[in-house]
Design brief:
This protein has 236 residues and is α/β, with parallel strands linked by helices. Helices cover 35% and strands 25% of the residues. The strands form three sheets. It has a four-stranded mixed β-sheet with strand order 1-2-4-3, covered by helices on one side. Strands 5-6-8-7 form a four-stranded mixed β-sheet, covered by helices on one side. Strands 9-11-10 form a three-stranded mixed β-sheet, covered by helices on one side.
Length: 236
């Protein structure tokens, strides 16, 4: 059973009531909201009381880096950009439209862009829209990198993963997530080189890392560190 409780301090606290649970647990979700897992049969009054008794602990929970949207915002991406505009005349309606290398995200001027559902919906729309630009810009760039390294993969495809940004199949087809479009070019190239190295080593052995390091000009470890520290501008 799922739902939420409105709280003055924490906003929407999302609920999952589960059969077999004997205690209440809190989780900070990727967008920064609280998820409360509790035994099936718990009443709203009981759950509100649990929140009140644990406010100090809840305030101390580590909060992930949460992207914020605002009107007039420009998100610089790989060979394109996203502009968020208060220009759509229909309340409750959000749309995206490409104009050259600019993705216009349009919403009604009074829309709360950072309300959980709106933020997730916008994130999903922007990610989906990036598939077009990934086909246009990312795949040719990946082929260029492969040519520079003297490699001949069987082909390149656009994927959709956020946590899995790339994949090399057993048939040496390189799949690159459309969400690479949010990375700077140095990290886009790193992901491509990483997957190209998998054409030779379908593992993460020392030999693989040595080859990947060679493909990245001796910067594999630094680029991997940058990738781990990168904060995506949309919700995962």
């Amino acid at each position: 059973m799922k739902g939420y409780i409105e709280d003055e301090e924490f906003g929407k606290v999302y609920l999952e009531l589960r059969r077999g649970m004997t205690s209440v647990r809190f989780v900070v979700q990727p967008d920064g909201s609280l998820l409360m897992r509790a035994p099936l049969g718990s009443t709203i009054a009981m759950l509100r009381d649990v929140i009140d008794r644990n406010r100090e602990k809840l305030r101390a929970l580590p909060c992930p880096n949460v992207p914020e949207f605002q009107f007039g915002q420009i998100i610089e991406c790989f060979r394109c950009r996203v502009v968020i505009e208060p220009t759509n005349p229909r309340p409750g309606y959000i749309k995206t439209q490409w104009e050259g290398d600019t993705l216009h995200v349009q919403a009604y001027p009074t829309t709360d862009l950072n309300e959980h559902d709106n933020k997730q919906f916008m994130s999903d729309m922007i990610s989906h829209a990036m598939e077009y630009m990934a086909q246009k810009e990312l795949l040719p760039y990946a082929q260029q990198v492969a040519n520079e390294l003297g490699l001949k993969p069987a082909g390149f495809e656009v994927g959709r993963g956020m946590r899995k940004l790339g994949h090399c199949t057993a048939k040496k087809v390189i799949q690159l997530s459309r969400n690479l479009m949010f990375l700077p070019e140095s990290l886009v190239r790193y992901i491509i080189c990483h997957e190209l190295a998998h054409m030779t080593h379908l593992n993460h052995s020392p030999q693989f890392h040595a080859l990947c390091d060679q493909y990245t000009g001796g910067h594999e470890k630094e680029l991997e560190r940058q990738l781990r520290q990168f904060h995506f501008p949309i919700l995962k």
